[in-house]
């Protein structure tokens, strides 16, 4: 029986007109417990992971990076406000109302119908294989736009909120073009597990 690792939480993706782009993972449930990480695409294209040593080891086993910085990340949502912090990096966001609330569905739906619809309508994928060979299913619970955001690095402003027009190159899919906050369940199957899994689960 294939072993499936499950994460539940949110992914928030934001870009700024300075060229800095961020993907914040805020996981309330995971194989290593609750954690937050920040995937950071710099203007020059370098891909940087922010997270403590335990978090970094787990994330790097799924996605490769040009640089890994061992530093704590915190993320917190209060109503429509969402913040993320790591060392000298500060991200403050306002999120809108939910634009999508799909019902629970099995992995095979996510891998077929949902994946096709997401690619056609949003330019994203919900199923694929990471660069390290991990098979992934992204099942959205709710989706919201990020309607306002500020970012600073060592007290230097990183510019105005902007679409994510350039590829970030972190995994099997790019985030939505419009900055977004998505609650979801992620299922992972590592290469050594093999097999095909079409079980209906919640």
Topology:
Elements: E1 5-16, E2 21-29, E3 35-41, E4 47-51, H1 53-60, E5 67-70, E6 74-78, E7 81-86, E8 89-100, H2 107-122, E9 127-129, E10 135-153, E11 156-157, E12 161-162, E13 180-189
Parallel strand pairs: 4-5
Antiparallel strand pairs: 1-2, 1-12, 1-13, 2-3, 3-4, 6-7, 7-8, 8-10, 9-10, 10-11, 10-13
What does this 3D model show about the protein?
It is a single chain. The protein has 202 residues and is mostly beta strands. The protein has 2 helices and 13 strands. Strands 1, 2, 3, 4, 5, 6, 7, 8, 9, 10, 11, 12 and 13 form a 13-stranded mixed sheet that branches. The two termini are 17 Å apart.
How much strand content do the residues show? over 45%
Low-confidence stretches: 194-202
Total of domains: 1
Q: How many DSSP-defined strands?
A: 13
Percent of residues in helices: 10-25%
Task: Write a short abstract of this structure.
The chain is built from 2 helices and 13 strands. It is mainly beta and 202 residues long.
Key traits:
202 residues; mainly beta; 13-stranded mixed sheet; 2 helices; 12% helix; disordered C terminus
């Amino acid at each position: 029986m294939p072993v499936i690792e499950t994460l539940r939480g949110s992914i928030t993706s934001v870009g700024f007109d300075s060229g800095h782009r961020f993907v914040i993972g805020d996981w309330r449930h995971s194989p290593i417990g609750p954690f937050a990480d920040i995937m950071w695409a710099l203007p020059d294209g370098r891909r940087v992971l922010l997270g403590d040593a335990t978090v970094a080891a787990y994330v790097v086993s799924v996605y490769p990076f040009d640089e890994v910085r061992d530093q704590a990340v915190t993320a917190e949502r209060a109503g429509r406000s969402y913040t993320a912090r790591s060392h000298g990096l500060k991200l403050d966001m306002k999120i809108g109302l939910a634009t999508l609330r799909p019902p629970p569905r099995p992995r095979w739906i996510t891998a077929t119908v949902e994946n096709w619809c997401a690619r056609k309508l949003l330019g994203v994928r919900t199923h694929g294989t990471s660069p390290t060979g991990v098979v992934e299913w992204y099942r959205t619970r709710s989706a919201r736009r990020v309607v306002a955001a500020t970012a600073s690095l060592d007290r230097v402003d990183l510019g105005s909120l902007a679409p994510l027009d350039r590829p970030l190159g972190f995994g099997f899919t790019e985030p939505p073009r419009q900055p977004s906050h998505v609650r979801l369940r992620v299922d992972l199957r590592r290469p050594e597990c093999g097999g095909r899994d079409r079980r209906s689960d919640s």
